[in-house]
Structure formats: structure tokens, C-alpha cells
Amino acid sequence: METIKSHKCPSCGSNLTIDNDKQIYLCKFCGSTYDYEYFREDNAIEMGQTYLSRGEFDAAADAFRFLLTKDPHDFKALRGLMLAAGRTGDVKDLTKFIDSGEFICDEESVEFVKNNCSSEDKEYFDDFNEVYSKLINLTKLSKEYKDLRNDKKQIEDKIQLQNGRYKEHMIVDRDGVEHEPKNVFIVLWVIAAIVMAVTIFGVIALYIKAGQSPAITVGISGAVVSLLLIGWNCKVNLSQVKAVQQINTGLKDLYDKAAKLQERIDKLSDEIHDISSQTKRACAALCKKDNALGSLREL
């Protein structure tokens, strides 16, 4: 481990300089000197707490781990290492991770604390570990919640795009009214059938009254009109009908996926709410216990 360095004189608060030849820290203001071991051991807790307050959690963990090499059961060092593992400077600050849903934990350090705390401190560190476990679970659920929201947003964007394509295939009449291609396709088939039926009856009537020649003329005219309607309907409207059917199939699939995602999002939201409430209560209980222990041990 690297030597833990202090830059302030404990006597007067001035900056210290390092004399590498004598291996001491020297205060040029008051003349006090300190050997390396003074800052490596006697001030390790104080320095660890300073690092925690600055948010320098890796340096704080190093300071507390150094002390724990001397005494693996040191309560203050274990507590400090636990705080450093949770990237927080104080127990009461743990509640900020509940709302943010972004908790990072050094599980190796937590396991070390769990395995090395004394029997009298076990309950305290078990409560600490419980809060961390809840925060880890809450972070995991919050991430899943955000990911699902993003997935749903992407699906909604696709639905909007498909709805735009759907409108492009609508058939607009002279009055600007939009019609489903399928409805237009059916109407034109009906018109073609009516023309064909009228033509047949007309041919029969003309054949009886006027003879073969007029009947043939009417029959050919009616057949041509019917075939033109059918041909145009199949060539133009049928492709539109198929395109709309494909879009509707895709939209149905997208709406189904969005509904399932929303169902999962709602369940996650309820679950996150419940765990958040549990974690707040666990944090409050831990703070109360920490304050009580702080009074007893002068943390």
C-alpha cells in the first residue's frame, strides 16, 4: 500500500513538507516533525473520514484497510470501509440513492466487513448490509424500468411511423374524405357486378325486342366497362389493400408489444415503490442505530 500522506500539520494546521532523506514530515511554520508511521497509523481514521467527506472513496478505503491489517475487527475502520464501499460519506446520505436509483457498491469490501466484524457488531453491519442489498435491488429494478420505458418509446415511435404510412395509402375522394382501400375495392367490385348484371339483362331484352345486332353491341360495351373496372380495381386498389393489411398486421403486433411492456412497467413501478418504502425505513433504522453507536463510541 502507498504511504498515506497528510498535507496539514496537526499542531498548527500549516502545510507540511516531506524530507525524503530523513523520512519525516516537517512543518516549516512551527517546526514540528512527524515520521511516516505517525500518519500511516495514528491519523488513518481521521484521514479516512476526511477522504470520505471529500468523496475520495478509493483513498478512504485504502486508509481503513490499512488499519484493518492491524486489527481486522476495528469497528471504526470497518464502518468507514463500509461507507467507502457504498460511495457515500455518511449513513444519512444513503437515502439519496433511493430516488436516484443509481447505487454502486464494492461487494468485495462489504463481504470483508461482514466476515471480520465482531459478534457484538454483527447486528449493526447486518443492518448495513441489508440497506445495501435493498439499494442494489432498487438500482437493478430502476435500470430495468428505464430500459423498458425506452423500449416502449421506441415502439411508440414505430407506431407513429406506421400510422403515417397507413394514412399515405388512404384513398381521398373529391371532397377530401379519406376511404379505406379495402372499402373502395369492395365498392368497385359491386359496381362492376351491377354493370355486368345490367348488361346481361339489357342484352336479353334487346335480343327479344330488337334482334341480335343491338344486343351484341350492348353486351360488348357492358363487358368492356366491367372488365375495365375490374382491371383497374385489381391493378391499383388491390396493391393498396395488401399494403394496408400488412401495415395493420404490423401495427397490431406493435400495439401488443407496447401493451405487454406497459403491463411490466406498471408492475415494476409498484415494486419499486414498495422497495423504496422498505429501504427508507431500513435507512431510518440504520441511522438511528448509527447515531446511538456514535454516542457510545464517539464515531
Please tell me about this protein's structure.
With 299 residues, the chain is mostly helical. Among the domains are: 1-42, no CATH class; 145-279. 74% of the residues lie in helices and 4% in strands. The chain contains nine helices and five strands. The strands form two sheets. It has a three-stranded antiparallel β-sheet with strand order 1-2-3. The protein has a two-stranded antiparallel sheet with strand order 4-5. The radius of gyration is 41 Å and the shape is rod-shaped. The two termini are 25 Å apart. Mean pLDDT is 82; it is low at 1-6.
SSE topology:
Blueprint: E1 17-19, E2 24-26, E3 33-35, H1 36-42, H2 44-54, H3 57-70, H4 75-85, H5 96-100, H6 107-116, H7 122-168, E4 171-172, E5 178-179, H8 181-209, H9 212-297
Antiparallel strand pairs: 1-2, 2-3, 4-5
Helix pairs in contact: 2-3, 2-4, 3-4, 4-6, 7-9, 8-9
